[in-house]
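TASK: fixed-backbone design
INPUT:
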């Protein structure tokens, strides 16, 4: 390598040496609109000249538009990811009841463990430290969507702060502004989440049509193994979310790519450990009391999911890297295309090539890698990521211990949530008729998981909206956004719960052809409907917690409500009072109800002006931190 000039030592690895053009040249309509709506929302909420109701309605509309921009692509991506896994379980279910139980245990008990671990880094990209100032004027980074979002956010704060208007006169325009913001954020996110879930669900459907044994194995693999991995990876990846979002808002663009690489490094290293759990899934399941036949079949399914672990390690950081820049639509398009590929290949592999459970699992892993590769190609080639992605850098290897520490609270919070209902599936495997319990519970959990992808999209929107408004000094907009996003998410879940009750007698036939399983699922549907209603609020409040940095507090709440109340109560009702699967689920719903009420109480007692002050203090402190720049 040739010698480097002294002045070159200050340049990040692979960063362009050209002076970027003025920022205004690269703003696109979407970013400008987002900025305008944000400003408009704050104006509406702050207006004291209008009565309350005249402010509320426009504020709600603005907030919904902002949330739609954030959530729609994200929901779609999550749903595609889940659908791939779901169809794998469906295919397994058609192999037999035992196969369905095994696939469920593999997905929920082992795969979710890896998934949650990989998502641990997401909030880091949004909050705990702010990167150093960029070497050159920021450019190209704010596109039309981002600027538009900012303007609308400012508008919302102005509306809410206008004391010349009555409460009603402020609320109406504020609702309109908030609805615009929410829909812009939430719609793509919801779509992505749902597609991701459908991929997983389709795998279970294919497995279920192989037979009851295959359906049981897929259910056990999904719920007993995969879900633990999923929760762990999801938790670690979520530590990136806050840090990247605030770095982008502070116009410190080069550090987004560095944080992306750091997170990927940590998650890949974690994936190696998780792969060992997958490799020894059979003895682990036997140790947990599962039958030999189901454990053996579930282990075969889980072996095919090992490549998926490392797809998680790359996907979650990339996903949050893009969301921090309000780049949400490309992920939705990629997820939709991948879902089609997944369905076709899964059908060919399972039914035409006769590869059974292993083939279904391998196709799910392959589909996740298609998503990862497509998203990375977009980052490298897109002009929107030109300055947030400057190439691979050795700087990504610096600060790893501190980066890891910042993710722990978020990991604990998200893992405890993700694993909670997966533990219920594992406990159900210890009942007198484990195959029937696993089949019925896995089908209900699959449906619940699909619907909760919508709430996850609103979770992402809530996190972005709250963190953005706090960083912009808009306390009224932040508080108003919390109210609107929770109402919209709850209404969506209420519709889903109603549909579940209407189709309770036929809903299971998509997964398996057994009448006994259909009757068991129908009997559990009232509990499923209650769970869906709770899922309309709880994940959104968790998103608010991420935006505010309350992860540690929520982690303590989760431990107390879920594992000190919910799990023991479920075991007591299920085994001691002989209520079996229904008793286990009832007890765990009790823990969720308590956790939800605590989060509601804390959220609506929050002093949002103080939260803005705390955010400003953190930003001032972070601005004093200069991170060394490494060179090639």
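OUTPUT:
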């Amino acid at each position: 390598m040739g010698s480097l000039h002294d002045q070159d030592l200050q340049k990040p690895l692979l960063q362009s040496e050209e002076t970027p053009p003025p920022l205004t040249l690269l703003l696109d309509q979407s970013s400008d609109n987002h900025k305008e709506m944000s400003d408009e929302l704050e104006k509406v909420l702050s207006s004291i000249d209008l009565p309350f109701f005249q402010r509320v309605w426009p504020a709600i509309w603005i907030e919904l538009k902002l949330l739609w921009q954030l959530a729609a692509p994200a929901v779609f991506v999550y749903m595609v990811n889940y659908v791939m896994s779901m169809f794998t379980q469906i295919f397994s279910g058609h192999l037999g009841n035992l196969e369905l139980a095994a696939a469920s245990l593999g997905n929920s008990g082992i795969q979710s463990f890896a998934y949650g671990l990989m998502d641990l880094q997401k909030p880091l990209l949004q909050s705990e430290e702010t990167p150093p100032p960029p070497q050159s004027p920021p450019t190209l980074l704010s596109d039309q969507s981002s600027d538009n979002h900012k303007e609308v956010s400012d508008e919302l704060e102005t509306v809410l702060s206008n004391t010349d208007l009555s409460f009603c006169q402020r609320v109406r325009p504020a609702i309109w502004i908030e609805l615009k913001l929410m829909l812009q954020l939430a719609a793509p996110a919801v779509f992505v989440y749902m597609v991701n879930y459908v991929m997983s669900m389709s795998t279970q459907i294919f497995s279920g049509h192989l037979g009851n044994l295959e359906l049981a194995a897929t259910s056990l693999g999904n719920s007993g193994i995969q879900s633990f991995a999923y929760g762990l990876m999801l938790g670690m990846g979520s530590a990136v979310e806050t840090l990247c979002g605030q770095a982008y808002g502070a116009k410190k663009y080069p550090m987004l790519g560095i944080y992306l690489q750091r997170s990927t490094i940590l998650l890949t290293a974690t994936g190696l450990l998780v792969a060992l759990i997958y490799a020894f899934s059979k003895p682990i399941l036997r140790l947990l009391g599962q039958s030999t036949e189901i454990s053996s079949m579930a282990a075969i399914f889980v072996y095919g999911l090992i490549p998926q672990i490392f797809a998680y390690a790359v996907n979650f950081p990339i996903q949050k890297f893009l969301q921090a820049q309000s780049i949400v639509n490309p992920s939705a398009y990629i997820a939709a295309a991948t879902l089609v590929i997944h369905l076709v290949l899964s059908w060919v592999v399972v039914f035409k090539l006769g590869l059974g459970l292993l083939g279904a699992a391998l196709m799910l892993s392959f589909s996740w890698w298609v998503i990862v590769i497509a998203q990375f190609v977009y980052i490298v080639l897109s002009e929107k990521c030109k300055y947030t992605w400057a190439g691979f850098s050795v700087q990504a290897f610096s600060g790893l211990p501190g980066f890891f520490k910042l993710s722990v609270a978020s990991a604990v919070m998200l893992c405890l949530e993700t694993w909670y209902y997966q533990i219920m599936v594992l406990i159900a495997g210890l009942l007198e008729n484990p195959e029937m319990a696993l089949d019925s519970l896995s089908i209900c959990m699959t449906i619940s998981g699909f619907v909760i992808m919508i709430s996850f999209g609103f979770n992402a929107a809530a996190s972005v909206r709250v963190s953005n408004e706090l960083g912009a000094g808009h306390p009224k907009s932040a508080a108003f956004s919390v109210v609107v996003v929770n109402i919209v998410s709850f209404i969506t879940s209420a519709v889903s719960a109603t549909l579940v009750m209407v189709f309770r007698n036929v809903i299971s036939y998509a997964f398996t052809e057994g009448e006994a399983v259909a009757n068991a699922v129908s009997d559990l549907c009232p509990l499923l409907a209650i769970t869906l209603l709770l899922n309309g609020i709880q994940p959104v409040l968790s998103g608010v917690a991420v935006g505010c940095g309350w992860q540690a507090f929520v982690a303590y709440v989760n431990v107390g409500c879920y594992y000190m109340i919910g799990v023991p109560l479920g075991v007591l009702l299920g085994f001691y009072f002989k209520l079996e699967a229904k008793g286990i689920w009832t007890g765990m719903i009790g823990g969720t109800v308590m956790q939800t009420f605590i989060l509601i109480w804390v959220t609506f007692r929050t002093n949002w002006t103080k939260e803005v002050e705390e955010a400003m203090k953190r930003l001032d402190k972070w601005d004093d931190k200069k991170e060394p720049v490494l060179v090639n």
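COMMENT: The chain is about 75% helix and 5% strand.
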